[in-house]
Write a structure and sequence with these properties.
six-stranded antiparallel beta sheet; mainly beta; rod-shaped; 191 residues; single chain; 11 strands; 11% helix
Length: 191
Amino acid sequence: VSSAATDIDPANNTDDDTVAVGTDINLVLTQTVVATTDTSATWDITVLNEGPSPTTGPLVVTDPLPEGLTYVSSSGTDWACSAVGQVVTCTYDPVLSAGESATVRLETEVTARADGQVIVNTAFVESPGATVRPGCPDAAAGCGAAAIVANLSTSRGGGQGLALTGGDVGPWITMAGALLAVGAALMLSGR
């Protein structure tokens, strides 16, 4: 704005105010079984930032391994993982922009199993200021994947198990429970 008049107090011509701008970080966690054998299971844990804001701090994935699994190793660009007892903690420090994802792979040893055993492994993620939504149907906080461990090395020569992911877990756990119940009933009836 210009004027022919002279400003008698130029010190009051500007003003500023600090306003905190909120972030909106929406993370989605998914977990899948990559491979299983009669002695190992490999899991991929992926965190997607649905945005619209980038992350403002590290991603921290926690995977409390169920009984029967032991942490062996991990891999993934910019991920650092460690285990204390059964709890594996993985940290990802870079900023994860909206639309980007980061995946960490966990190698585990199957330490206690029976053929056909269903092992369900559930992971969780947190990050400062983020809202977390599991990428698995009907999951309350974390996202799980199940591996059915089978020793097929003598009958089929492959030693491969059956891998299931998030939404597939429930029916298989139900079916495995039903098969165990039928087997127990047959054993009790002497057949």
